[in-house]
Design a protein that fits this description.
α4 packs parallel to α5. The chain is built from eight helices and seven strands. It is an alpha/beta fold and 254 residues long.
């Protein structure tokens, strides 16, 4: 029996791949034998990451809010020579922090354009390509526990992630007959560069976050990345339409 955790000969597009969870997902895919198309706004960061990956890699510098970027990523995937296998929609933003009643509509538009419509554009483009190729493949959307609960002061972000989970379930139903599995992963607090910077600047914030976690710590980037990669593999061949929560028990603790 071949190793169901390998991705040899398969190419996956990863958005928001310049740092954090996206970069670790790209590294993990590459370490499992897969090819990756890494997409992010920073060309320099993509070039640096690409140079560290052992497997086939292509880079696309662009904003997922620009729907043309999805087509560029598909073109880049063709250059790698492997079989297009799917997409990890990791790109997302959460730049604002205030109550819904104080949130301008322009901020809603900005966040939804990236977190929801950007992911939908990539899911549509990759899904169409997979169906045209005969079916089979994976779509994994990066959600958040923010989409499963009512975290205050980040209303548009919460809504975008809840909508992304709903989109994931719809894709799973519609693409299932073509053998394309669609799932989302909802991390809790993960020690990305951004989060670590916030906690360094505000030690009290770190204390509050740790206090809410039954495991007594926040998660590492790798602990968020590997469940995503698991859903790309044959080991997850009967899992679709699900939101996999990776939060160290935070939701369970209320």
């Amino acid at each position: 029996m071949s190793d169901p955790f390998r991705l040899d000969g398969r190419t996956v597009i990863v958005t928001g791949a310049s740092r954090g969870i996206g970069a670790d997902v790209a590294r993990a895919i590459s370490s499992r034998g897969g090819g990756v198309v890494i997409v992010a706004r920073s060309a320099d960061a993509l070039t640096e990451l690409a140079g560290s990956l052992p497997g086939p890699v292509a880079t696309v510098a662009g904003d997922v809010a620009d729907t043309m970027v999805a087509g560029e990523a598909l073109d880049a995937a063709e250059t790698l020579g492997g079989t297009l296998w799917g997409v990890v929609n990791n790109a997302g933003i959460n730049p604002y922090y205030h109550p819904v009643l104080e949130t301008p509509l322009a901020e809603w538009d900005e966040i939804l354009q990236v977190n929801l419509l950007g992911a939908a554009a990539f899911a549509r483009a990759v899904g169409l390509a997979l169906v045209e190729a005969g079916g089979g493949g994976r779509i994994v959307n990066l959600s958040s526990i923010a989409g499963l609960t009512g975290l205050p002061n980040i209303g548009p972000y919460n809504a975008s992630k809840a909508a992304l989970d709903a989109l994931t379930r719809t894709l799973a139903v519609e693409l299932g007959p073509s053998g394309i599995l669609c799932n989302s992963v909802a991390p809790g607090t993960i020690g990305t560069e951004m989060v670590e910077g916030l906690m360094t600047a505000n030690p009290a914030l770190k204390e509050r976050l740790v206090a809410k976690a039954p495991l007594g710590r926040i998660g590492t980037v790798a602990e968020a990345a590997w469940p995503i990669v698991f859903l790309l593999t044959d080991a997850a061949s009967f899992i679709t339409g699900q939101t996999l929560v990776v939060d160290g028990g935070r939701l369970a603790a209320g």
